[in-house]
Amino acid sequence: MLSTSGPYSLRVMTYNIRYDTVKDGKNQWSLRKNKLINLIRNRAPDLFGVQEALPNQIMDLQNALPAYRYYGVGKIDGKMKGEFSAIFYRIDRFDLLNSGTFWLSKTPRIPGSKAWDAAGTRTCTWVQLRDRYTFQIFYHFNAHFDSTGRTSRLESARLILSQTRAIVGSSTPIILTGDFNASPQSDSYRTFITNAILEDSKNISERSHCGPDSTFSTFTVGRQMGKQIDHIFVTSKDFKVLQHGTLTDSNGGYYPSDHLPVLAEIMFKKIISG
Questions:
Q1: Across residues 224-231, what is the average pLDDT?
Q2: Which of 103, 148, 150, 174 is paired with 137 by a 20 to 30 Å CA distance?
Q3: What is the CATH number of the domain that holds 118?
């Protein structure tokens, strides 16, 4: 996916990069990180959200991608312990105005908390950015939902909607990325797209979706894929979506992660004059 609209469009990516574990054998992080980093370089997102990133993986990305800065915290202690749902943004394009993380639980301000039928702790990280090209201020939220708890996913979607209203209000553009462990047929997905604010960028893209619908791939190229669970949502009153794709970059045998990244090129409907 090449940019179709010059410097004013935003290329947004969501990517579950798979946590670092020796159990992955030939697909463990140390053996695949350069492929994943090169994918990000080549696809050149302006901002991207990652899921399942452990602290060493965050540092590897930051060190290899100096054109970006990140915000995020570990899900266990709100500092550096556990997986991050971090957001990376281009420092030559965006000014970071504010940031935060809340936990997908009944006590969203308490680090490490979980609730409902969730198997583990999950978070949503957000940043408030000013775009130096368009002078627009917007928010990017990035989340990772529980993989087993259906009630947890539904309540997490409801929580994100209530938190965005509390943090953002109703007039500021929002981008929401993540691994939601939820297909378009799920209750949690429908909670987002029936709220009259957010739309799935895939559904409103001006160009037809490119690539497979599935985003859970396993590492092996050619193996049957799983569901479409990674999504990019936007406030459709603020953004138009120029194109949308699920990326299948690989070395011919293996993908850089067990999820495929999703990339959308979007554009503010209103450009503010400087």
A1: 97
A2: 103
A3: 3.60.10.10
